[in-house]
Amino acid sequence: MSSQGSTVDLTPGARRILDTASRLFYERGIHAVGVDTIADEAGVTKRTLYNRFGSKDVLVEQYLRGRDQRWLALRTAAVDAAGPDPIDRLRAVFDASAGWSDSDGGRGCGFTKAHAEFSDPAHPVAQLVAAQKQELLELFRGVLADAGVVDDHLAQAVLALHEGALVAHGVGVGADPWVSAREAAVRLASGA
C-alpha cells in the first residue's frame, strides 16, 4: 500500500469518498464494504474513486491515517491540558480514550478491527496498526518514566489495561471499564 492522496488536501469529491468509506469501514468492516458501495453512497462513480485513490488499499490506508490523526489531536490536547504531573497525564490518556469511544459510537477501536481483517504482519494495514499501538506503548513508557517508573513490563501492562478497556467498552462489559482501567494504571504508576 503506497500513500496516495492526502487526508488534508483532498478535492471535495475525494473528501466525500473518504468520509463515506471511513464511516462504512468502521460500521461494517473493511472487507464487507466494496468499492461499488462506497462509490454509490458517496455519489460518485467507481472511476472517480479509483482516479482519486488508485485502489481500495490506499483508501483503507487513508481511513486509518485519518482516524489516527484525529485521535492523536484529541489525545495530545487532553495530555497537554493535564499539565506536567505524569499521573494526571496518564489519567488524561484514559479519559480521552473514554471520550473518543463514546463519541465514536462505542464500537471499539478501528485499528483493532482492521487488524482482525488484516492479520498478516507483512500486510501494510497490519503494519499501520502495529505502529499505532507501538506509539501508544511509547507514550506510556514516557509517562511512567516521568513518574519515576522505568519498567517495561509495567508499561506493557498499562497498554494492556488501555486496550482491554477499549474492547470491554466496545462490547458493553463492566460498569465502566475506562474508570477501572485508568485507576489500575494509576496504581501501577504510583507503585501502589
TrEMBL record:
Keywords noted in UniProt: DNA-binding
Listed Pfam families: TetR_N
Q: Which InterPro entries match?
A: Homeodomain-like_sf, HTH-type_TetR-like_transc_reg, HTH_TetR, Tet_transcr_reg_TetR-rel_C_sf
Give the SUPFAM superfamilies listed for this entry: Homeodomain-like, Tetracyclin repressor-like, C-terminal domain
DNA binding happens at which residues? 34-53
Q: Which residues form the HTH tetR-type domain?
A: 11-71
Looking up PROSITE patterns in the UniProt record yields:
HTH_TETR_2
Superkingdom of this protein's organism: Bacteria
Instruction: Quote the protein name from its UniProt record.
Output: Transcriptional regulator, TetR family
Name the source organism: Williamsia serinedens
